[in-house]
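Onboarding guide, step 5: your first structure request.
Type a short instruction followed by the sequence, for example:

Predict the 3D structure of this protein.
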Amino acid sequence: MRPLIALLLLIAARACTLSDSTPRSYENYSVYKVYVKTQSDQHIMDQLLEQYDNYNLWHRSVKEVDIMVSPGAQETFLSLMRKENIDVKVMIKNVQTLIVNERK
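The system replies with structure tokens like these:
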């Protein structure tokens, strides 16, 4: 029994050392304040937030949604907002800059 426990502990320790310990970069990720006026606007935001790789919810209220958008999705996001006549405002242009400044 002891060799099995030792083997499991060794495997667990090895898995911890092999894990990717480099912090994720949020270079060129932006945060937008989206002004939600209609049920349709809310539905669009809900659909975007289902795309976890590109969109991340920061804050939500009845009339506003703060959403982080990946660099690869920004053009599509802004185009959709224009097409649907949804007002947006850039809150944070580059999230990584904010993170770096917080660490200082």
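Each response can be followed by summary notes, for example: Helices lie at 2-18, 39-49, 74-83, 95-103.
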